[in-house]
Design brief:
Number of domains: 2
CATH superfamily of the largest domain: MetI-like
CATH topology of the largest domain: MetI-like fold
Number of strands: 0
Largest sheet: none
Distance between the termini: 12 Å
Radius of gyration: 24 Å
Shape: globular
Structural class: mainly alpha
Length: 322
């Protein structure tokens, strides 16, 4: 298990390094992309452009520029924005990260629990009316875009029924957990359920299919032949093996959402998270912020995939030697 973990850590470091080089090359070495012109503004003279290039180190070789940016990003942590001069990049990301993490973590808890309940219930009651009803509900959840569902929910909770049923729902925005945990919960509970709706339906359908497929395996029939109860066979054998598929999906989705893919939910509910920060930096072509956000997203995606591999190894020991 130690060697398995060491291989995954080495792979993580290599992937992060490769992503940092790729992002740098795209934004700094692509022909026609001149950060100095962006900083200096329109109609800047050649003397001004030369001064900006020298001040920011753009006149130095690309490997040197890459090393300087990585040093400022990871070691000295004093990398500043190209658009908002003097504004540090790292504090922007660290302020946005708790917002996104709060949104995704709460939604993940809801959609995983709901998916397990729906998937197990549909598999157990296969052949009855419960199975197709649950699958239709899951398909409805998958089919509703987050931005549309969020706007509908906001219309109901913030406008139509806000003075009666949903008077407890605070205005759109984020309340830090450290300042008021109860207000944090009330502000996030509606975005949690909206974001979880799509994933709960998808995961429930996937888990149902995996459970039905696993029920025909030899080791499951052997467990039944030994006299084990259906409940024990379901929990100890069928469900554990079927969760491998769900774990794979969860690792990819959770890492991507924490890395900024929850942009639509953040915009709809007025949350200044990583997705919103990345979108704004792309709109302004603020290259240092883009680099920081991409590396932040890549880190969580890579870590999530590494954790998936570890859970694989726990669920199926054969993976450890793969």
């Amino acid at each position: 298990m130690v060697s398995f973990l060491a291989r995954r850590i080495a792979s993580m470091v290599f992937v992060l390094f490769s992503i940092s080089v790729l992002v740098f090359v795209i934004f700094f070495a692509t022909p026609g992309v001149d950060p100095a012109a962006r900083i200096a503004g329109r109609n800047a003279s050649q003397e001004t452009l030369a001064a900006v290039r020298h001040d920011f180190g753009f006149d130095r070789p690309l490997p040197v520029q890459y090393g300087i940016m990585m040093r400022k990003l990871f070691i000295s942590r004093d990398l500043t924005s190209f658009v908002n001069r003097g504004v540090a990049v790292i504090p922007q990301v660290t302020e946005a990260a708790p917002v996104t993490f709060s949104l995704v973590l709460g939604a993940a808890v809801i959609w995983v629990i709901a998916a397990i309940v729906v998937g197990v219930a549909a598999a157990v009651f296969r052949g009855t009316i419960i199975d197709p009803v649950l699958m239709i509900l899951g398909l409805i959840g998958i089919s509703m875009p987050v931005f549309w569902l969020g706007e509908v929910v906001n219309l109901v909770t913030q406008n139509r029924l806000h003075d009666s049923v949903f008077s407890w729902v605070p205005p759109l925005g984020y309340v830090p957990f450290t300042s008021d945990p109860w207000m944090w919960f009330k502000a996030m509970v509606v975005p949690w359920f909206v974001l979880a709706t799509t994933y709960a339906g998808l995961y429930g359908r996937v888990l149902r299919s995996a459970l039905l497929e696993t029920q025909g395996e030899d080791y499951v029939r052997t467990a039944r032949a030994k006299g084990l109860s259906e409940r024990r066979v379901l929990i100890r054998h069928t469900l554990r093996t079927s969760l491998i598929v769900v774990v794979s999906l969860f690792g990819l989705d959770f890492g991507a959402l924490v890395g900024g893919s929850a942009l639509l939910a953040e915009v709809v509910f007025g949350l200044q998270g990583v997705g919103k920060l990345t979108y704004d930096s792309l709109q302004n072509l603020d290259l240092p912020v883009i680099m920081a956000c991409v590396m932040y997203a890549a880190f969580f995606v890579v870590v999530a995939n590494a954790l998936v591999d570890l859970v694989y190894a726990w669920l199926d020991p054969r993976v450890r030697h793969a």
